[in-house]
Every structure is written in C-alpha cells, then in structure tokens.
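Example: Thiol-disulfide isomerase or thioredoxin.
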Amino acid sequence: MNMRKLLLVLMTVGIAATTKAQSKIVIKGTVKGDLKGYHKVYVFGDGIKEDSVEIQDGRFTIRIPWVKDAVPYLYSEYDTKMRSGPPAFPVVVDGPGTIYIDLADVTQGLRAAPIRGSRSAAAFQEFEEGREKLRTDIRAAVNERFADKPKNDSTLNKTYLQLIQQRLIPYIGDFVETNADAYAGAFILGRYQAILPPEDLERLYNKLAPAQKATGPAKEVAGRLTGIKRAVAGVEVTDFILNSPEDKSVSFSSFRGKYVLIDFWASWCGPCKASFPYMKELYQQYRGDKFEILGISIDQDKSAWLNELKKQELPWPQVLDTKKVSVNSFAVNAVPTAYLISPEGKILMKQVGMGEEGNGEIEKKLKELFGK
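Written out as structure tokens, the predicted fold is:
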C-alpha cells in the first residue's frame, strides 16, 4: 500500500472513530447534600437500555448511545426512598453531546437541578417549571373561590379543568412557536397533541421547521391530523389489518356488509371495563349477519391486553392496534371511544363512552336500524 492510500485509510478510520465517539449522550451531574446511603442514579427510556451509575464524591456520569427521538428518563435512588411524588423525569435531548445537571440540594430532588448543554433539554425543563406554576396558581385561585366546598366537589373540579384548558393550551402554543426550530417544540406538540383543538394542532404543526417535522413526535402529529380528516361522518374507513390474540391477520374490509361497532379500549381503562357487561347485552341483542362489534385495544403491552381478555371473556372479535389506526384513521383522544360503521364501510357516528343507560347516540341508532 503506497503512502497516499495509507493516509486515506487512516483519515477514514479517524473520521469513523470521531463520529462514533460523538454519537453518545453524556450526562454529567453534581449532587450536594447527604445522600443517606442512596448513591445510585438510574436511566431508562424507549430505545434506551436501562442502566445505573454511582454518585461518587458528589458526581456522576452517564453515557448512553444517542438514538434519534429516544428520550432518556432519569431518577435517583435517593428520590425514590426519601421523597414523595414521581421521581423520574425526561431529558429531552436534541442530539449527541454533553449535558450538565447540577443539584445544589439533594433534598429538592434530582428533577429540580438546572440543566444546561442542550437547548431542548433546558427549554423543556423551563416549560415544565412554567406548567407546574400555572397549575399551582389555578388550583390556589379555584380553592379560594370555592373555599366552602370540599376538595372533591364536582363544580370545583370542573372549574379547575376548564381553567387549565383555557390557560394551558395557549401556554403550549407559545412554547411550540418559540421552539419551532428545536426538538423540544416537536416533542411538546407530540406530547399534548390529544388535548389541542384540531385547528391549533394543525397551525402549530405547520410552524415546525422542516427538520423537526421529520422527528418521531411530529410524524405522530401528522398522523393525527390525517386521522382527524378521516374520522368524519360519511367518510369511508381506510382498510387496515391488525392481529387477533391468536396472531391471525384481521382486515377491516372482511366486515363489509355489516354494521360494525368499533370499540377502542385498553386494559388499563376502568370505564372501558365497566362498560363491558352492558356491551355484552348489546351484542346479544343485535349480533347476527347484519351486525358485529370489533374491539381494538390501544395497549402497548401485549401481555396486559391478553391477560385482560382472559378476564373479560368478550364474545366479539378483538385486535391489537400496533399500527396506530386509532390515531391515524380515527383520531381517538381517549378511551372508551366507539364508532358505528355502515355496511358500505362508511362512518355513521362517533361516541365517547358506552354507558349503561342505553341512551347514547349509537344505541339510539341501533334501535332505529334494527327496530329493537
């Protein structure tokens, strides 16, 4: 090998090694105070291997591969043992590099430590601090307004939720617009997509920089926007194929010729499970050549879905939504949500919740269709 080729090889190896070294997230932390013997800091997240490190002489360093759209969550052993509330918090990284977390007082909790070194991580932390202050201020104002009411009063809680929506949505919008060219903007938009009005969601999505529209959270928002346009009465359902508990493919088009009640649910959803006895009665009443129920679980844990199916013994077909059909075709924000589909495969109506009163719009429509 001549000198020129050797130099080229060495340069290539050097570039590859540099690239590999730079493709890590390094989190360097300092912690001051008495740890009470609880010295570990843990990291986990989707696409991130769960790991832990020791705090030594008030310092710790975590090194993890940088994976696009993967958000590491941190928590400390001290917080789990000595503090109340959820200890884990996300570090919204926007690329490989070094992030610094400096906790001046261990009793305040690791999530209270200022973050620097990453624009998106610092911006997200600022967003969370503002959101918590907003919630605290609203709760104090509502409690003062309803001082004579118990904490579980329905009017008090309804007012609180209304004020949260009125102030949180503009707060989210302002943050996304300010950070439209940063990963934090896309991350927050994706995180709160289900509570934003469709017009606000589309407007904010359109504000995102092209690079941020290519991120995972923004792609989820794009899917929801498509679902919002598809989930309209009179629109034909785009065919989809999902798997049954036996891992057999079930296509929605196989139900053509029947009225289909699509029930979106989840194993962790109390109201979903509470509605099943009533739905079994409904199914017994209308099942036949002209009517079917299709249960679509939005569970991310397949084993939890299968275990719940064993408990519930539901007599209608069940599939697991592994392709985000609930979002991309039906824009489901909460479960239980039901759609009634015509024999031609078109959406007739939507209903959030399946109660026991039998006076929902879908129940009324079924009585009208089948005369019973």
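The CA atoms of residues 310 and 357 lie 26 Å apart.
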